Amino acid sequence: MRLATRANGTPDGELIVVSGDATSCLSAADIAPNLLAALERWEALVPMLQARAELIQAGQGDPLDPATLRAPLPRSWQWLDGSAFATHGELMQIAFGLDPIDRERPLMYQGLSDRFLGPSDDVPVPDSALGIDFEGEFGVIVDAVPMGTSVADAAQHIRLIVQINDWSLRAIAPIEMKTGFGWVQAKPACSVAPFAVTPDELGGDWRDGRVCCDLLVEWNGARFGLVNGDQMAFSFPELVAHAARTRDLVAGTIIGSGTVSNREYAERGSACISERRAIEIIAEGNPRTAFMAFGDRVRIEGRASDGSTPFGTIDQRVVQA
Amino acid sequence: MRLATRANGTPDGELIVVSGDATSCLSAADIAPNLLAALERWEALVPMLQARAELIQAGQGDPLDPATLRAPLPRSWQWLDGSAFATHGELMQIAFGLDPIDRERPLMYQGLSDRFLGPSDDVPVPDSALGIDFEGEFGVIVDAVPMGTSVADAAQHIRLIVQINDWSLRAIAPIEMKTGFGWVQAKPACSVAPFAVTPDELGGDWRDGRVCCDLLVEWNGARFGLVNGDQMAFSFPELVAHAARTRDLVAGTIIGSGTVSNREYAERGSACISERRAIEIIAEGNPRTAFMAFGDRVRIEGRASDGSTPFGTIDQRVVQA
After folding, report:
1. What distances in angstroms separate CA B199 from CA A132, B151, B286, B304, one per listed residue?
2. Where do the domains of chain A lie, and which CATH numbers do they carry?
3. Strand A297-303 to strand A214-219: parallel, antiparallel, or no bridges (unpaired)?
4. Contact A200, A304 (CB under 8 A)
5. Residue B18 forms beta bridges with which residues?
6. Residues of B whose CB is below 8 A from A124
């Protein structure tokens, strides 16, 4: 099942169910006013949402206007982002002389969740000298997860899968990282692709708790990376259980994979500029690739093994705030 | 003006206005359903809230039942905690061999904001071996703050002042800090004292953007610290402007001071166990004071220079989750 959020003048938008080919939809506002509310009563509501999806499949949907789509969750109470791709971590560690990574524990920080930009929203940044960078990644949305939930049980709480651009300001990131406190200024609002899909929608591409889809990243129309989500050192259920060790996770919590990255980066490229710069530093001593300028566009699209694009596309422009 | 939130079966509770002596109150649910909603329209609503406060002062309030009080914001979209007391930072740095602190930039992390425990709620922790610690601090609540707001303008967005217990799990904190990603497992839900007060309510104790009140901390009935909020290296307006450099701050954002700490710690004590242990390590080579055990209580109370207790009292017990 594919869900999305349509602009309706409210902070949380209107929940809609979308057809597999993303051409038709039906409102689900009578089932739950918005996706955040639906996640709070997921098990009770999901049969009704599925019935709505069947109506659409039977040809009773309305045309979908992509211009009305916001982030699936325009805001949520909690956003926890991992950094689960070992290749990315290793490249950054070598290039920037960071401390060795503890491979026994997932990396995770809490970020801004009071707003998520929509798939084609402009991205406001105050200063182009801040090292503007995209980060293509996948994420999961859970319903309420009790403190101390095991990895096996955590998998059952993963209700939806999304595709995210975790915007980063690289001139600030290492300064904040050095404090040990994590990122505030270096991490403005993320963007999210329009469709949140249930795990079954991905078929065999949801495998071992990983989103084994390709992620195509294009910067100003040129291919930057075509990476795959299968090489996470920790699975999404492991990330969820990690997050829930000492806290109950509120329904609607989004947990991110961190920048998708592959061992075959020489052929596949990267999902963020900083990783490409790290590769350049390691190979040549200095980075050649500059960060984004105002007016630059980035396009990020997940691709399933059958060639479909389950999450839709992020395609947006950086602008001066 | 003093505001509080009364339990009414909803996630956000009922907004009430409270008398200066905390004995009487009136509902403000007809003005705004809850405090988070009030902060979204603060300037428009504050005259109505003040009129309600005048009714109470004229003797028309209802009796206040302290047992019904929750955290002023039982949940909020954003919680950003600083660490603005230089003495605390220096003691921790020396005792634990941390990197030198950059004195030009405030320290800040984003923490769990989907729930704040009430002033007398039990505090659930999964394991007493995690180094259970309180952190007494002050915080401010802002209305919507645009990205790039100056320090001078930031001061105008500080609408309410609160008193917080930022619970910390010290066995995990240094492990997470070393990653540079900040704290997730080490920072479960905070607790907040019952009353949020407008800055004018503190008179001369709200000075230079600092809460110049004492903070009395008692652990199992014994005085642990009697510290004052006046020695912040960065003022609250500076913390707000720092947070807003690359993001719009959503109305209801709470920004914390970090553990209150004074240069005169030998006489005044500390507002968290970890700081006392740091002092012991520096003086004697090893810490003598153990962290909290299940069943332990902590009582934290801010005291104005006139002896009043503007925020009310946090008095709670740690329990096994």
Report:
1. 37, 16, 41, 12
2. 2-68 (no CATH), 79-320 (3.90.850.10)
3. antiparallel
4. no
5. B2, B25
6. 147
| Closest-CA residue of chain B to A172 | B246
**Do the chains contact at A185 and B245, CB–CB below 8 Å?**
yes
User: Does the complex come out with an ipTM higher than 0.85?
Assistant: yes
Q: Which of B77, B98, B181 sits opposite A114 (nearest CB)?
A: B77
Which residue of chain B is at minimal alpha-carbon distance from A82? Answer: B181
The torsion of the CA quartet A179, B265, B256, B25, rounded to 10 degrees, works out to: 170
Nearest CA in chain A to B187: A246
Which residues in chain B touch residue A84, judged by CB atoms under 8 angstroms apart? none
In chain B, residues with a C-beta closer than 8 Å to the C-beta of A321 are 147-148
Confidence of residue B304 (pLDDT cuts 50, 70, 90): very high
**Which chain B residue is nearest to residue A251, measuring alpha carbons?**
B114
Q: Do B183 and A183 touch (CB under 8 A)?
A: no
B113, B177, B321: residue with CB nearest A180: B177
Phi, psi of B69 (to 5 degrees): -85, 135
pLDDT in tens, B15-52: 999 999 999 999 999 999 999 999 999 999 999 999 99
pLDDT tens digits, residue range A163-195?
999 999 999 999 999 999 999 999 999 999 999
In this predicted structure, the answer to whether residue B99 has a pLDDT above a threshold of 90 is no
CB A258 within 8 A of CB A119: no
Distance CA B135, CA B224 (A): 11
pLDDT at position B63 is 98
